[in-house]
Amino acid sequence: MSFPDLTADLAARMPELRGRLLANQPLAPLTWFRVGGPAQVLYTPADEDDLGYFLARLPEEIPVTVVGLGSNLIVRDGGVAGVVVRLARGFSDIEVEEGHRLRVGAAVPDVKLARAAADAGIAGLAFYRGIPGGIGGALRMNAGAHHGETKDRLIEARAVDRQGRLHVLSNADFGFSYRHSGVAADLIFTRALFQGEPGETADILAEMDRITAAREASQPIREKTGGSTFKNPPGQKAWQLVDAAGCRGLARGGAQVSQMHCNFLINTGGATAADIEELGEEVRRRVKSGSGITLEWEIKRIGVPAPGATP
């Protein structure tokens, strides 16, 4: 499937644009599941100013979708209409600041934040070693693992809105809750400032090694997966509910519930996005039928189904 090419018109509207515009760019290679259709336009901004310039001149009727490292994402097989924004090199800086703080770009992988903190002798951020994805996604969903959450360490973040205006948001502005922030959906995060505490590099690295070992022992991290599929309901563990519903190993097409950790869906090879999403919905139906509990997706799903597929 392909969309009408908008890039020439957009480039004409934005003669000073420095970022890159690509028409009908495949998104599957940018996701951990390795599935999904193309972006009508994939825009990679040069930096924060370029992003603001682009958004201020983008026609209002063209939708904007932001993707990060693609670790917690299903792109549907029909692709994503409008503009998909993906931050890259211009948002990958890491700066150590006084007071055991780190200022990082939104495209920085979580693991790189953890490593930079360790190298600087900054404790309190090692939990990011256990989170797949990037800082922008961590801000959007209050990512957390191993007894740490983004809300515990964030001081402030910068973001650009749909009209190209810059905002500086405090921790309180986020309205953080479990795997959620209340920030307006149109804001695109560009940088964030995190607070750590004094620590010894060797101790921090040892903690990161423990986190790595725990993940490798309990999660299918070497598979094509999207991480945790469903949020934990209050007082419950999603994986236990999935297991109790008899869904461990359940398959649809090339998609399967992981045998190792049944809150993970995996692409065993040749899966479509529809296979993965339909499998997730079947798991939700079985859990609801058996326990009365409705599981909420943690994985973000974007785009449209392929022509003829079930929405």
TrEMBL record:
It holds the Pfam family FAD_binding_4. Its cofactor is FAD. Its main location: cytoplasm. It catalyses: UDP-N-acetyl-alpha-D-muramate + NADP(+) = UDP-N-acetyl-3-O-(1-carboxyvinyl)-alpha-D-glucosamine + NADPH + H(+). Residues 34-214 form the FAD-binding PCMH-type domain. Gene3D superfamilies: 3.30.465.10, UDP-N-acetylenolpyruvoylglucosamine reductase, C-terminal domain, Uridine Diphospho-n-acetylenolpyruvylglucosamine Reductase, domain 2. InterPro entries: FAD-bd_PCMH, FAD-bd_PCMH-like_sf, FAD-bd_PCMH_sub1, FAD-bd_PCMH_sub2, MurB, MurB_C, MurB_C_sf, Oxid_FAD_bind_N. The active site is at residues 179, 228, 298. Its EC number is 1.3.1.98. GO terms for molecular function: FAD binding; UDP-N-acetylmuramate dehydrogenase activity. It is an enzyme of class 1 (oxidoreductase). Pathway: Cell wall biogenesis; peptidoglycan biosynthesis. GO terms for biological process: cell division; cell wall organization; peptidoglycan biosynthetic process; regulation of cell shape. It is found in: Cytoplasm. GO terms for cellular component: cytosol. NCBIfam families: murB (TIGR00179), PRK13905.1 (NF010480). Cell wall formation. This is UDP-N-acetylenolpyruvoylglucosamine reductase. It comes from Ancylobacter defluvii.
